[in-house]
Amino acid sequence: MANDIRITILYDFYGEMLTEKQRDFLNYYYNDDLSLAEIAENEGITRQGVRDAIKRAEAQLYDMENKLGFVEKFEKIENRMNEIIDCADAINAYNLEHDLSREINESSVRIKSLALSVIE
Amino acid sequence: MANDIRITILYDFYGEMLTEKQRDFLNYYYNDDLSLAEIAENEGITRQGVRDAIKRAEAQLYDMENKLGFVEKFEKIENRMNEIIDCADAINAYNLEHDLSREINESSVRIKSLALSVIE
Known about the structure:
The structure is a homodimer.
Chain A: H1 4-14, H2 20-31, H3 36-43, H4 47-68, H5 70-97, H6 102-119
């Protein structure tokens, strides 16, 4: 169906806005890797019914990202955190190499840990 | 009605998920500071109708934050960015005071600018 990885990310961000049934279907299909036919049999509905329900849920997820854009915002933040981590590493390496200061060492380590805590 | 500042923040985050009419009502009430009676007259509906529409829109905004939590997530990120900025400032001040290194100066300035770009 849709791009699996993108759907998984959108689901992580916006899944709570779907109904429990929609979340179940997406989980069966994307996480448990069940086929449409298997889900249909388990749920006692048609294969086409499962397909439509999943398509609708996916459309809702894409629609929310189009309107709210939080995945894109977090991806930008993630890029900036990675750049901050690189800078903090550079400061730390330079500082250690030139045997400069404990204060600078501590602050650069703290910066790295804060930036990591945002993206982990 | 509800807490104005909180509503304004929730509206900034989730307003795009409301209908155009709901957004209009919230704008008239919170941004333009019109009274319920004034909005009612402009829109040709009852004061109670306006009140109900605004209450419903507010409830939807609170519901989205309860489910998605992006305001809370961004507030946490903001706190971390402020702490990163403090650390970068500390590195920079120490570095300048002790006349240590251009590399450390440049990296700490870059860190501060990246952290600021996330919260501005």
